Amino acid sequence: MSDIFEIKKVEGLEIIDSRGNFTVRSFVTTKGGVRDFGDAPAGASKGEREAVELRDKDGGVRSAVRSINYYINYALAKLDVRDQDKIDRLMIELDGTDNKSRLGANSMISTSIAVAKTAAKAMGIEIFNYIGGFRSHKIPIPLLNILNGGMHAGNELKIQEFLIIPVGFSTFSDAIKASTSIYRTLKNLISEKFGKIYTSLGDEGGVSPPLSKTEEALDLVYTAIKNSGYDNEILLGMDAASSDFYNSKLNVYEIDGTKKTPDEMIDFYKELCERYPILYLEDPFDENDFERFSRLQSKLSKVIITGDDLYTTNIKYLKKGIEMKSTTGVIVKLNQIGTVTETLDFFDLARENSIKTVISHRSGETEDNFIADLAVGLNSDFIKTGAPARGERTSKYNRLLEIEKEYEFKYNKI
What we know:
TIM Barrel, eight-stranded mixed barrel, single chain, magnesium, three-stranded antiparallel β-sheet, Enolase-like, domain 1, 19% strand, alpha/beta
């Protein structure tokens, strides 16, 4: 093994994320002097089955940094940085828990990403080629969260994300130009209706106007699409994150000033999809209700019902969803499971079963644009990385624009 590929040191650092919270950055350095980093994102709305991040009582991540410096560093020393599978599985074995709670999922995923990026740099190739090989690649369709509710905003909306989906374009750059136009139009509409103060941004860069009902938000976004002249090219989507407004004691969903039973929620979503051009619906029910997901998907065959909290990027739960035909889409989040290798295993299982894939960010992000390369390398159907605003979101979009220009990859089609 050449010195350029032999891991010399792994070290951790506390950094800040887009919400002003601390998170972990891992650096991997080879004996030959090649060095790169990986960051651990963090979610505000989390599935109960997600891998556990190590966080100190004061909100810091010093314990996670210690995991890197005093455990992972010595375990990975002298290994070949290109051996991603071996390295990830060694960290899993070293952790020894079902939920990554000993070393911390944040320690592990930041290191796992850093390993992949350092390996690509040592080989002198693009990260997406390192992940997916030198085959033909496509640019994923973005799901842009331009209006925030739920735990991502300070308004009374229960639905967490209102998305625009630019499907009717031949290039990613044209799709982004249209999306930014709609985003600006939406901000102008809100400024005129509520005042400029309400164009302030939520966690993922979307606006958070003082709304309380789902239809009010959909009307605003759809009006922005039509006023921008893109009603034939852009569809709508929603991430309900419904576990956050599900009352388990009463078995009802508290939304839009009402209490709805799970069956009434099926009718609620069905009516919305009849009124608006909705292509995508994420986490419409509580994260344990595989059956209701399945029933809704059967009634809305043209809508991509997608599981996030339902699966938490874990093969065990995806297998159950496949068996029950719960969804036709899956969210793929690296930090939910804790390593790149496990993420790829999950992605492959979804793809093998003709399930649409969505490589996704978290609400607490950094400027690291690794998921853009990951989405291209895997030929993911979609990428979800927030509004076209704020550096931690635009870094992903700008990387995709860069890849498209440099390599002339085609824009994905549904």
